[in-house]
Design goal:
With 110 residues, this protein is an alpha+beta fold. The protein has helices at residues 41-62, 80-92, 97-108; strands spanning 5-7, 10-12, 15-17, 22-28, 35-38. β4 (22-28) and β5 form a beta hairpin.
Length: 110
């Protein structure tokens, strides 16, 4: 079960503030800070959608490209021995390092 909201390929967190007695969250996967809140799950979801729609409308008005969450590239740091093992595996199988890593990660979600 996921505690993420999703709308138009954007995802957002769901958190609870005991002090303020409200739900809140922020859009993840982009650099811009887009946050939302609500007193109920329904209000939280509505504010999340409004924030995304508002962000996209603002980008259009300013004639700027909205940030795309999860562009498909990321950097990782791994143990040098594991790096070498993956690189050797890729060479032996005629694949790129990226292809091997993508395949390995993809297998996690099958």
């Amino acid at each position: 079960m996921s505690n993420l909201l999703s709308y138009r390929n954007y995802n957002g967190t769901v958190e609870y503030s005991k002090e303020d007695k409200c739900l809140f969250g922020k859009v993840v996967g982009i650099k811009s800070l887009l946050s939302y809140e609500g007193a109920s799950v329904k209000e939280l979801e509505e504010d999340f959608i409004n924030v995304i729609d508002g962000y996209l409308a603002d980008c259009k008005e300013r004639n700027t490209e909205p940030e795309k969450p999860y562009k498909g590239t990321f950097n990782i740091r791994i143990n040098p021995e594991l790096h070498r093992n993956i690189a050797v595996y890729a060479i032996e199988h005629g694949k790129s390092l990226n292809a091997v890593v993508e395949e390995a990660i993809g297998n996690m979600f099958r």
